Amino acid sequence: MASHEQERVRSLQPGYRHVPSLATVRRVLCTISIEAVGAYLQGLQGKMGESGQIVMLNSERLQGQAVDGKTLRGASAHQAAQGHCTHLVAVVRHEDGLVLSQASTQAKLDESTQAQALLAALPLKQTVTTFDALHTSRIQAVQIRRQGGHYLFVVKRNQKTLHADIDAAFSVLPPQGICEVDFWQYESCALTERSHGRSVQYRLESIPALNDFVAFPDVAQLVRRTGIAQTLCTDSRKGQPRLDQGGGRLGMAFSGRWVDWANGFRRAIATFHPQTTGPK
What we know:
Elements: H1 5-12, H2 22-29, H3 34-45, E1 53-55, E2 61-71, H4 77-81, E3 87-93, E4 99-105, H5 111-120, E5 127-130, H6 138-146, E6 150-155, H7 160-169, H8 177-184, E7 187-195, E8 198-206, E9 223-235, E10 240-252, E11 268-273
Parallel strand pairs: 2-5, 5-6, 6-11
Antiparallel strand pairs: 1-2, 2-3, 3-4, 7-8, 8-9, 9-10, 10-11
């Protein structure tokens, strides 16, 4: 702090011509409301840049954001012994990871309730919010649509009926011939992603003609993702490369018109089928 004191004085123009000491800063922070500081920082963060934006095919721009919860690393050992952990739920902007809103919750199962409260305090127009399967619910979907936003939900077997309905909808795929492609409004795209030592090949398929088949608020597209992951690792016993393979099938349902696969989607629900070993 001392090495940049003059620069900070010129920038901040404080009443006293020097930067407060660390002890002074700490003493001030201990006397003010954490909630008030959080609300102020949230307002500043919401005005920072355009990172995480999704450009639609009609040139409309949507802000991508994700809802997720995490137990703080290193903060739970002592608390866990007493039956308490520090668990936070946050709304995070896509791409740069900027936290737009955050709150603590007592347990992972309370994430959904806390997420609804966080989103209720945020402007959701011109946004698309992504969720994991824990948050997939009609209540959450209705809230987002009521606030003017779009959603992407993942559906796993914790939503048995919804999962089965989406799975049944995709039983008509792949379509045979041009007539069936047109009838089902079928579209597909292949993507390859490399991260964490893995190369994953995905195929995304959409059948918006079956939106009404799924009883979920304001669904506009059903999408399935099939994928096979290839991981190149080394067998320590022989020093030779070994190829691990695994994969899954993911289906999604979206609202709005079809968008660029590489850029993102609008209101969606998705199913995951871990038994699949490759693209179908």
